[in-house]
Amino acid sequence: MARLVIVSNRVASPKERGAKAGGLAVALREALNKRGGLWFGWSGETQVDPPSEPKVFRSGKVTYALQTLDPEDQRAHYAGYANGTLWPLCHYRLGLLNFRRTDWEGYRRVNATFARALMPLLKPDDIVWVHDYHFIPLASELRALGFEGRIGYFHHIPFPTPEVFLTLPSHAALVRDLSRYDLVGLQTEHDVRALLTYVSSEARGWIAPGGVVGLRDRRFRIATYPIGIDADAFVHDAEAAAGSEEEERLKASLAGRALAVGVDRLDYSKGLPNKFAAFGELLKSHPERRSTVTMMQVAPLSRSEVTEYQALRRELEELAGAINGEYAEFDWVPLRYLNRPFQRATLAAIYRTARLGVVTPLRDGMNLVAKEYVAAQNPEDPGVLVLSRFAGAADELSGSVIVNPYDVEGMADALNSALSMTLGERKDRWRANMEKVTRNTIHRWCETFITDLSGVDGYGAGVEPARSLPAPKKATRGRN
Ligand code: ADQ
What we know:
Helices cover 42% and strands 18% of the residues. The protein has helices spanning 23-35, 71-90, 101-118, 138-144, 162-165, 171-179, 189-201, 231-241, 245-254, 272-285, 307-327, 344-353, 368-375, 408-419, 423-439, 442-454; strands spanning 4-7, 37-46, 55-59, 62-69, 127-131, 150-154, 183-186, 206-208, 212-215, 218-224, 258-263, 293-298, 335-338, 356-359, 384-388, 401-403, 476-477. It is globular and about 65 Å long.
């Protein structure tokens, strides 16, 4: 079996557990533990004139290789281009997009640095799986250094439609970079369509059935791999939470009121101001709900060095204060707003207690919180998921109450009707959602991607120039 090499910006250390190690990191570690392999990424440290070689250590069957970066390169790469340009672009927030050439150059420099550090550790038949928008040019850099093995890329966030993508000055270079991979995985069909449309209409590529794409001298595949969660572990944690001290404390604090819960990183893509406004609107336009429902928003701070995130934090503090100032009673605080992370077991207890899970991002690649909320429910008395149509998860979780997060009054009405839903309807909706959550797990996601990438012939092997590919039946032909 070929060795698996995973590349991600953040690498979960072997000892990291609980709140810090997210579901994704745990799943990747599990995939590596199972078959053995190498996990390569940023060390989390910066240093002027950093060593060109990564720190390498082994734990069990996994070798870790962590590269330290120059502070200015790291800033340009992470806060600059990845999170100041690509993140807003892919979340359709053009007003927040900053494009600076120095950041773009820093982004490419860091990818080149990573490729140089990784290359000596690679064997020709390795399968390299690169994660997320921090590393789009990594395959180009590895190919330039002579690596001809299989490289796959998974994009965890949405892929924007061409109209939006074209606003990025470096759009053509990024798609050329994507074409240096053998397999490009996206979360939803919508994302795949967006990229394929760009390839055929802007990049003059060929598209064959099955998402095989010909672009210049490269042939690669673009396909959907909807990410999931470790459903069994969440069910287990939620069952263990039943009757736990934490759950009892939470229930006692609610004094018989319904709980609506939101769990999101403090990020502008998550639609938190609109969610708060919708809850305020619920209390305003449905006064009978006052004092009968409490909303809890868990929002750990994220990228707090970026100005837009600092502004969002202030906005939410003001909104929460205004809602509580307006509606609180001496024995009821309508909105509980917490900026801290929790252990997974505590999150499971919160989800299970909540009558509503409120997941209303303005745009989201998938949104794992939606799936976690479903998995944590008591099958005999499940809560209702209120879900944004712009979360990737909305494609699968059709049992949810689907909302438009830009429509604050519509969301307030949806919250109101979800609170009144009968047990029968709640059960039907939950079953439909749970079926998807248990089918498309994180393990299935990992296995499918790795199997598909393993099946690729390898860069260069048998690849014809795209223009000489036969036009397949039903193929969409780009402007040529
Ligand atoms: P995120 O934007 O981080 O992920 P999401 O998919 O919801 O969004 O995952 C967040 C994870 O963090 C969940 O597992 C959640 O439990 C955890 N988490 C959130 N708040 C927490 C808290 N207070 N304490 C502990 N854990 C907390 C990106 C993309 C998503 C995509 C994922 C995976 O933006 O669209 O679904 O990657 O591909």
